């Protein structure tokens, strides 16, 4: 090396090699920088709040109601933990209000713990607590997530002046949001104890159930987990049970009584 550097040509050669190496390093740096810039500018599809997402809204509701949009955002502007797959919202709930335009991130959500009853409701959905004893409400057997039919029983006065008991399934396929494991801590639920069962239904159905619960007697019947079918709900009376006939007499008697009431008792 000393012999090479001791000559003019040798010094020029070493300088040329150093220049080539410097140029190669510079080119590599420029290429890497260009790739980095291109990567930062590359669009990434992320979920963005398309409307106000209130605190406590579940991922299922957000997805089902399409409360988000998919936006292509430059990679350098994507927030840490940004959500790119809508399926990742399942089983989660919003921790705070998320305003329109907000990128949805993992830190905006927490796992569902089963207590967010109201967060499952949308539009005309309502949650209503129905007080029921262990027999009428199947307490200890009905669980959250089950589907039930609601049977209401009343005692009405017919045109003949007599009291007539009637029953009918007024709702079918109602979702159970919450139900006690047992009406008592002693294992078998007591038939005299009362518990609240929370059901999801429409606002009109909720009013009907409230009336039936206050003015009659309500039963819940458990539906199959899958493949449930249903018949047209019949009106059940003593005649239909004992003689297997249609409840024409009680229906007509009640219609006449109702029409008389509308006419001022005439």
Write the layout of secondary structure elements.
Blueprint: H1 2-5, H2 8-41, E1 43-49, H3 59-64, E2 68-74, E3 92-94, E4 109-111, E5 125-133, E6 147-157, E7 163-178, E8 194-202, H4 203-215, E9 217-222, E10 235-236, H5 238-242, H6 248-262
Antiparallel strand pairs: 1-2, 3-4, 5-8, 6-7, 6-9, 7-8, 7-10
Describe this structure in words.
The protein is an alpha+beta fold and 266 residues long. The protein is rod-shaped, with a radius of gyration of 35 Å. It has six helices and ten strands. β6 and β7 (163-178) form a beta hairpin. Strands 5, 6, 7, 8, 9 and 10 form a six-stranded antiparallel sheet that branches. Strands 1-2 form a two-stranded antiparallel sheet. The chain folds into three domains: 2-30; 43-111, Antifreeze-like/N-acetylneuraminic acid synthase C-terminal domain (Type Iii Antifreeze Protein Isoform Hplc 12, Alpha-Beta Complex); 125-262, no CATH class.
What is the averaged pLDDT score?
80
Q: Residue ranges: pLDDT <50 for 5 or more in a row?
A: 185-190
What shape does the CA trace take? rod-shaped
Radius of gyration of CA atoms, rounded to a whole number: 35 Å
Percent in helix? 25-40%
Class computed from helices, strands and strand pairing: alpha+beta
- The run of helices and strands is HHEHEEEEEEEHEEHH
Largest sheet: 6 strands, antiparallel
Distance N terminus to C terminus? 128 Å
Proportion of beta-strand residues? 25-35%
The number of helices is 6
The number of strands is 10
What's the number of structural domains? Answer: 3
